[in-house]
Amino acid sequence: MKYGIVAFPSKKVQDFANSYRKRYDPHYALITPHMTIKGVFEADENEIKIIADKVASITGKHKPFTLKTTKVSSFAPVTNAIYFNVDHTDEITALREALHTIEYNDEENYAFVPHITIAQKLKSSEHDDIYPQLKMIGAEFEEEIDRLHLLYQLDDGSWTVYETFRLSGDV
Question: Does the pLDDT at position 52 exceed 80?
Fold first, then answer.
């Protein structure tokens, strides 16, 4: 089964992101707007219980962090995805590094860029048309994130919460 670890922003941010995602993101109906902390990995029932215990231990040692979006950016030309840029803070980096001490059945082959996707899988012409418009929207939000979510993918491709972990520590 496929899993991932994410932080969900507030409903206000999700609603704002969804106002664009419903037009420009084919994954709109599959997952709520989120910031990925740990990308997709595979695990069986026994492995995920061990991983969940380790995630709980790590999140218990880390305090809530500030999620601050500052602008709309794009991963082009690597991929035609458009996103709300999230400030890359020391707290997010420390949490991510701690979570990556867990052994997962995956290979990450990209640099971590904290973000909330609002458009993806666009044709180049479509990307080039809408990106300048989206860059002009005000995408400035700041809020505290006090929990992470371990998600799993259902047979229909949608994602749902397996377990939620509170950030409650002192790191």
Answer: yes
